[in-house]
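ok trying this again, last paste got cut off
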Amino acid sequence: MNIEELIREYPNDMELGKQIRKMYYEQQDKLKKILGDMDGKFIYESPDGGKTITKRPFGGDVSERVLISKDDSHESI
């Protein structure tokens, strides 16, 4: 349901607020479950086409990246 549909269905501000809060908390619960299911899993990234590989926790910030490997044999000329 989108916000326009909610406004039509719940013209009373109090009821509308209740529905929006309900939707918000349901989404937060889903997000927590997804992140919980991904606990201990990592995202692997290579910003330079495979020369350098890093990993970070799923949902983690890029500042949490850890270097996995670096291939210097493909230095550009």
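PB: full thing came through this time. Residues 13-37 form the longest helix (25 residues).
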